[in-house]
Amino acid sequence: MRSRVNFYIVEYAINSLIRQKYKTFFVVLVLSTLVFLLASLFFITNSIKYELSATVNSLPEIIVQKTKAGRHYDIDVSAVDEILDIAGVESVSARVWGYYYFENAGVNFTLVGIDEYEEQYKNSFKSAVQKLNFKTSSMLVGIGVKKIMRNNYYKEYFNFIKPDGKLKKMNIGGEFSADTELESNDVMLMSKDDAREIFDIDESKATDIVVRVANVNEIATVASKIKRLHPDSRVITKDNLKISYQNIFDYKSGVFLSFFTISLFTFFIIIYDKISGLSSEQKREIGILKAIGWRVDDVLREKFYEGLIISLFSYIVGIILAFAFVYIFNAPLMQSIFLGYSKLKTTFELPFVFDIQTLALIFFLSVPIYIAATIIPSWRSATIEADEVMR
Amino acid sequence: MIELKDITKEYSSNGAHIVRALKGINLSVKEGELVVLRGASGSGKSTILSLIAALSKPTTGEVVVDGERVSKLQDNFASEYRRETIGFVFQRYNLIPTLSVKENIILPLIPINLDAKELEDRLFRVLKMFHIEHKKEQLVKNLSGGEQQRVAIARANINNPKIILADEPTANLDEKLSLHFIEMLRELKLQGKTIIIATHDPLFFNLDFVDRVFEIHQGEII
Fold first, then answer.
1. Residues near A10 by beta carbon (within 8 Å), at least 6 away in sequence
2. B182 in Cβ contact with B153 (< 8 Å)
3. What does the pLDDT look like over B15-71, one tens digit per residue?
4. Cα(B38)–Cα(B202) distance, rounded to whole angstroms?
5. For A387, which of B56, B109, B119 is closest by C-beta distance?
């Protein structure tokens, strides 16, 4: 039985693409670049979204900060017991943390102090407590910090400069890891006492207070009670944090997408312009094919295969390049568009997130549009009388 | 077999000016006949061939081939009719220069999706018939005029059509090649094909195997 697919037409289509090798090369180049840019954008977006969502999920339910003149100040540790008395509160911890600017590398590290006897408000800290040596000045560092330290010849210890100008030597005791790299990458985890010493925070003070609530539906109620108890404080719930994280990300991706849409549109105009005007040779060829017995649908099928081969090839090339760019080379330049603040942060590796919907979306944005742009002008020529086309 | 009844054909030139290419043509050609349409350039002979091949439609009148009104055929049916019934040798051959001899010849067979063996058999038959086996892999653009014409005739015959139409077939050939073409025509006539030739080349007018010669002048048979 003969195959339903007419391979002679497929062969003719391939041959036709080879015959127009310069035009074919140009279209493959433009389409692959387009797919590559679009795919890279989506891959980065998906990875960061994944990281953000995992990071936000690990955040404490309520954070209480003291403010004065609209600025964040250290809070009294005594507030812990007062908050603990509020009905519905499960646990309360006073946190000691802050940012440390490492001038040699031009990056900020996040220093977090933990207490081995306290209940940890993050799962990642529970396992860290087992690894961290609280008896000596030791710390666990995230993978990003570790890399920077190693590049600056701090393999075993690091000297912090305290506010009074003296040095505080801390041993690097191991690596800190969490569910997401975004959460752990720039972190230096140490005992609260060491963190207090580095930041010069008094024992009666803390950076902020985190609150865990037994019933998540009561978060808003507990937050309002804390606000009543401490009117000078800022009470931030997990939902507030989620929104602000998302807003920063959406704003950045929105700006980028606007520019990207404009360039996408421009690319398509170029492609359409390139393809819509069939050359007189191409028109004549269609006329010849019709004159020797090709039906309109035979001509269109051949053009369909041409469009399919060229766009599918470009799609696959673009996707493979985007995979390599994002997940092997970690999206140089493009990543910083989304993580603009990362100049002061350590860079982190984008996690691999496979999303079939993204691949399908890019496919439908590129392949069918290109095929349509190939078929429409050919259809116009193929439906004119062959005699007229050849003349 | 072929009947043209009260055919007129008008072309619109530059959108406004109407050119009357044919003015009431009546013509009948029997099966197996070899007919020559003689006339100067622009007399309307090529238009007659184009109408018989259903490459264009008459303004009025109808073209009937084997009892079928081909002038009324829809575009796709007209293509099938050309593929199955007509072998057209165009004045400038209308070959695709960037394809090889073999690729040009099999073009009419591509939509039929024949099996590879049958396609090869048909190709071999016409390559042999028109003595171009040795050129089959060469690009058409690298061939001489005479060779290109043989490729065009081979392509016109690949489907073994009943009717051969040739438009000014010797216009681009020297005398030797023209005589060679005439020999090929004789062979096709012997095979029983119906042949119509539009030409102003006097070589065709006194050939012993030409059945009839029609003089076309300003769109009319005189």
1. A305
2. no
3. 667 888 899 999 999 999 999 999 988 899 999 999 999 999 999 999 999 999 999
4. 9
5. B56
Q: For A208-236, write each residue's pLDDT tens digit.
A: 999 989 888 999 999 999 999 988 889 99
* Of the candidates A33, A102, A63, A47, the residue with the CA atom closest to the CA atom of residue A322: A33
Q: What's the pLDDT tens digit per position in B114-154?
A: 999 999 999 999 999 888 999 999 999 999 888 998 899 99
Q: Do residues A98 and A111 touch, judged by C-beta distance below 8 A?
A: yes
Q: By the CB < 8 Å criterion, does A291 face chain B?
A: yes
Identity of the residue in B82, B109, B110 whose CB atom sits nearest the CB atom of A291 = B82
- Alpha-carbon distance of B143 to B52, in angstroms, equals 30
Stated as kind and residue range, the H or E segment containing B154 is helix B145-157
Q: What is the overall mean pLDDT for chain A? A: 85
d(CA A222, CA A214): 10
Q: Is the pLDDT of residue A341 over 60?
A: no
Measured distance CA(B56)–CA(B75) in Å, rounded = 10
Best mutation target, B94, B95, B102, to test chain A (most A CBs within 10 A): B94
The pair phi, psi for residue B216, each rounded to 5°, is: -110, 130
Distance CA A97, CA A110 (A): 7
A250 pLDDT exceeds 80? no
For residue B159, list chain A residues with Cβ-Cβ distance below 8 A.
Answer: 293
Chain center to CA of B4: 16
How far apart are the CA of A273 and the nearest CA of chain B, in angstroms? Answer: 25
The Cα–Cα gap between A363 and B176 comes to 59
ipTM of this complex: 0.92
Q: Rounded distance, CA B65 to CA B62, Å?
A: 10
Q: Which residue type, as a one-letter code, is found at position A222?
A: V
How would you class A147 by CB atoms within 10 Å of its CB: exposed for 0-12, middle for 13-18, buried for 19 or more? middle
3-state secondary structure of A362: helix
Domain ranges of chain A: 7-55+245-390, 75-206
The angle subtended at Cα B111 by Cα B105 and Cα B115, nearest 5°, is: 80
B184 close to B159: Cβ distance less than 8 angstroms = no
Check residue A359 and give left, alpha or beta (phi > 0: left; psi -120 to 50: alpha): alpha
Helix (H) or strand (E) holding B21: strand B17-29
CA B68 to chain centre: 19
Q: How far apart are CA B65 and CA B22, in angstroms?
A: 19
Read off the DSSP letter of residue A342: G
Q: Does B99 sit within 8 Å of A291, measured CB to CB?
A: no
